Amino acid sequence: MADYNTFIVVDVESRKPILTTSSIRKSAKLLTTGYRIEVWNNNRLIDLLYGKDKTNGRLTPYYSAEKAYIRKKQARAEKRNKCDRNIKHMSSQTSNRLSNG
User: Fold this and answer.
1) I want to staple 49 with a disulfide (CB 3.0 to 4.6 A). Which of 10, 37, 43, 85 is the partner?
2) Number of domains forming the structure of the chain
3) Dist CA 9 CA 20 (whole Å)
């Protein structure tokens, strides 16, 4: 099972979900009076965040975790792209040698 947070923005009055996402940035944009964010991880409710939590720093750990995830994802993509470029470059050199030889 994946180990990541899911954020559900809920209308407090009607108790209906407005947005379900894995991004704290997207969900925090909707966090105003009358809405709350439920933080779920591995099918467990681990936190409830309200509008006042935007200013008191309770969102900070979630922002940090998301930024770290994005950095890792970017590093993997750059490594993969570098390998792909090297393979294409090597294959073009080989084909040039065969056509010249």
Assistant:
1) 37
2) 1
3) 6
